[in-house]
Amino acid sequence: MVRGFSIWTCTCAAQVVLLVQASASVFCATLVKRQEWRDMTNNQKIQYIDAVKCLQSLPAKGLVEAARTRFDDFQAAHINLTDEIHLVGQFLPWHRRFLSVFEKTLRSECGFIGGLPYWDWSRDVDVYNSINKSPVFDSVYGFGGNGIYIPGYAGPFNNLSNLPGWVPGTGGGCVPMGPFTSYNLSLGPGTIPTNHCLTRAFDDEYAWALSSTQVANTTKQPSFEIFRIELEGQPVTPTMKLHDGGHFAVGAEMLNTYSSPGDPVFYLHHANLDRVWWTWQQLDLPTRLFDVSGRSTVDPPFVNITLAFELKMLNLAPLVPIRDIMDPRAEPLCYTYV
Ligand SMILES: [Cu+2]
């Protein structure tokens, strides 16, 4: 794909056809800027938090009965599709599309004017070996902090999270401070609909997995197939990686594979994973811009996914083939990381 080349100024029709076929991309009129949370102004942070709260106040559009709000609609779609979108080739493409639809909904339904923020955890972990002090968890200009400590907390399923060697986090209860204390979640944990508060259980046992060393170890992988496995982590890999590391370090709501989008921090964590993918793509754009692979389902029979594989968003947005979301600078995505 040729960047900085405007198809509108090309006078040769044949060249235009070739260019469009090669890139399969439609250029965006403008790109929204996705910033790291701590690089945003306090005003921008409040605008984002207010937009998420707006989504939490709008009525659901009815994907599942238990979903009350537009915010719940996104959590519901993730819950319903969880078994099809994790540990498979479409993991990164699906979440890229999901985040983009969330971003566009904040803009179209809640008047948000910015881009989805991301949380670069390595900036916390490299300094403190902890996520506790992250500005992301500020109680005024952030998402609130740890949950209240519950002695003997045993994970969101009350089963020590089914992982051998799992170390319980330091919280487990409701997040007592910040902008999301009063929001009542209707979905989760897992596939069960229950009314509950937002919970967290910070767990610095897993912070090491989010360091810049681990990011560099991920982006140095030579092919999409190795890269996606290295990024996503357990149980395909024997040790924790960037994706599961973030879910485990925040804990509780975020620890649940199905219902983790109940914590608004989910979107910032996954935006950073998407940024790591885009960083990896940009390291060798001619080879990697359209490089996808991986099994289509966890259990056989599975096929190898291709660019034609269609990403489902249920009632959130139309199907799109993976080809259409490989380039964040092109329609329908139109964003850039700064
Ligand atoms: Cu997910």
UniProtKB/TrEMBL annotation:
- Tagged with keyword Signal: yes
Any GO MF annotation of the entry: oxidoreductase activity
- Provide the alphabetized UniProt keywords: Copper, Metal-binding, Signal
Renumbered to this chain, the signal peptide range is: 1-24
Which positions fall inside the Tyrosinase copper-binding domain?
86-103, 263-274
Checking InterPro entries in the record gives: Di-copper_centre_dom_sf, Tyrosinase/Hemocyanin, Tyrosinase_Cu-bd
Q: Which domain of life is it from?
A: Eukaryota
UniProt entry tagged with the keyword Signal: yes
Gene3D superfamilies in the cross-refs:
Di-copper center containing domain from catechol oxidase
PANTHER family tied to this protein: TYROSINASE FAMILY MEMBER, TYROSINASE-LIKE PROTEIN TYR-1-RELATED
Q: This chain belongs to which protein, by name?
A: Tyrosinase
Per the UniProt record, the source organism is: Mycena alexandri
